[in-house]
């Protein structure tokens, strides 16, 4: 029995050692620090179990379970954090329930309540700690396959704990770790499996989160949250191929902010950044995922509108232009306007993004010459661009 507990402690301690080596260069990583604390609590808690019979009962039972309650709470907090599901409300709930679990269990010891009731209470509390992260991993629609699998596995653990609580109350079978029975063997096996799930599973979830962060950094513009130029071109080229095969129309909008340099020079670069972020958020809201929206650089942006003919694209361009003109940015007492070049291709087109950008840039230049704060449509092959009324 002590060998089994020693193996569990050694497994958690091994994880602590590895995390310690990682933390040496990542001491500000809050997520890793939280998980690190949970492992230490479990190492100390299970380690004290080994000395049961050699230390006072309030230590081998009361303190041990208090440490394990705290460790479970901190670990499930880490599971919530890795899913971006941790906030003040969740923190308050976990703190409150952890205090309730520790105080409640120690009161049962002081009142001399029989072991079965204590086991039921401890198992129920341990299971409840898992409910929130399991719910998030299983129910959330955008959860990855790894998160869903982890959710189901943790869900089985929670159900097992609830089942242990019920059996402790309503059967005469011994459910304790120190009473030889088939349940003792199952409990030890569960401890090993849970240890592997906790340690390996969390590291995989952490790795997945890091990968998602890197993909986002490589895909989106840091300031505005729009697609960056490289990603916009890649996705636009793919959509153009599909639209050409289906012989659907497509519209390309290229626009920039009028007198943006003057805004920076007059009101400062922070104000200029507010203009970019405010305008980007507004455009994304108006588009409502009907097309691609990306930043090409500086104050120049592009929109690809699949399936939009001249009439609909003209209405959309005017909607975006007028929305920006009506926008108000704190600390900037002037209206922000945009000039826009519009290119619409009929069914069965061939050109790629580079051609669209070239034509859109010509129409945008004409919009500047026409007095700015307008949208100009590119007419080809040789017609002059004209302002969209």
TrEMBL record:
Keywords: Membrane, Nucleotidyltransferase, Transferase, Transmembrane, Transmembrane helix. The keyword Nucleotidyltransferase applies. SMART domains: GGDEF. GO terms for molecular function: diguanylate cyclase activity. It comes from the Bacteria. CDD domains: GGDEF. Residues 248-380 form the GGDEF domain. The chain crosses the membrane at residues 6-24, 31-52, 58-82, 94-113, 119-139, 151-170, 182-206. Its EC number is 2.7.7.65. This is GGDEF domain-containing protein. It comes from Paenibacillus chibensis.
């Amino acid at each position: 029995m002590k060998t089994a507990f020693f193996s569990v402690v050694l497994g958690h301690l091994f994880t602590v050692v590895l995390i310690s080596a990682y933390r040496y260069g990542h001491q500000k990583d809050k997520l890793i620090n939280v998980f690190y604390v949970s492992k230490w609590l479990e190492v100390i808690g299970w380690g004290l179990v080994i000395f049961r019979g050699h230390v006072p009962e309030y230590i081998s039972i009361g303190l041990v379970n208090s440490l394990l309650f705290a460790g479970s709470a901190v670990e499930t907090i880490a599971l919530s954090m890795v899913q971006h599901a941790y906030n003040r409300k969740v923190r308050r709930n976990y703190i409150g329930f952890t205090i309730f679990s520790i105080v409640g269990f120690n009161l049962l010891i002081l009142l001399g309540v029989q072991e079965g009731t204590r086991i039921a209470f401890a198992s129920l509390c341990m299971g409840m700690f898992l409910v929130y992260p399991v719910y998030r991993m299983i129910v959330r629609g955008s959860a990855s396959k790894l998160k869903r699998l982890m959710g189901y596995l943790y869900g089985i653990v929670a159900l097992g704990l609830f089942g242990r609580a019920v059996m402790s109350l309503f059967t005469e079978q011994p459910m304790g770790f120190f009473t030889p029975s088939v349940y003792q063997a199952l409990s030890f096996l569960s401890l090993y499996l849970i240890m592997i799930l906790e340690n390996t599973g969390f590291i995989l979830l952490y790795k997945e989160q890091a990968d998602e962060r890197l993909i986002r950094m490589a895909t989106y513009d840091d300031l505005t949250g729009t697609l960056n130029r490289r990603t916009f071109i890649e996705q636009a080229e793919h959509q153009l191929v599909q639209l050409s095969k289906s012989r659907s129309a497509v519209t390309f909008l290229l626009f920039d902010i009028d007198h943006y340099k003057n805004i920076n020079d007059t009101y400062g670069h922070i104000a200029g950044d507010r203009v970019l972020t405010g305008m980007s958020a507004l455009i994304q809201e108006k588009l409502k995922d009907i097309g691609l929206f990306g930043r090409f650089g500086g104050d120049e942006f592009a929109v690809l509108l699949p399936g939009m003919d001249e009439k609909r694209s003209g209405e959309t361009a005017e909607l975006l232009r007028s929305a920006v003109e009506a926008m108000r940015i704190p600390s900037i007492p002037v209206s922000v306007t945009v000039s826009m070049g519009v290119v619409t291709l009929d069914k069965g087109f061939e050109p790629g993004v580079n051609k669209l950008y070239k034509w859109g840039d010509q129409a945008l230049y004409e919009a500047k010459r026409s007095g700015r704060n307008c949208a100009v449509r590119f007419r080809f092959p040789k017609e002059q661009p004209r302002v969209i009324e």
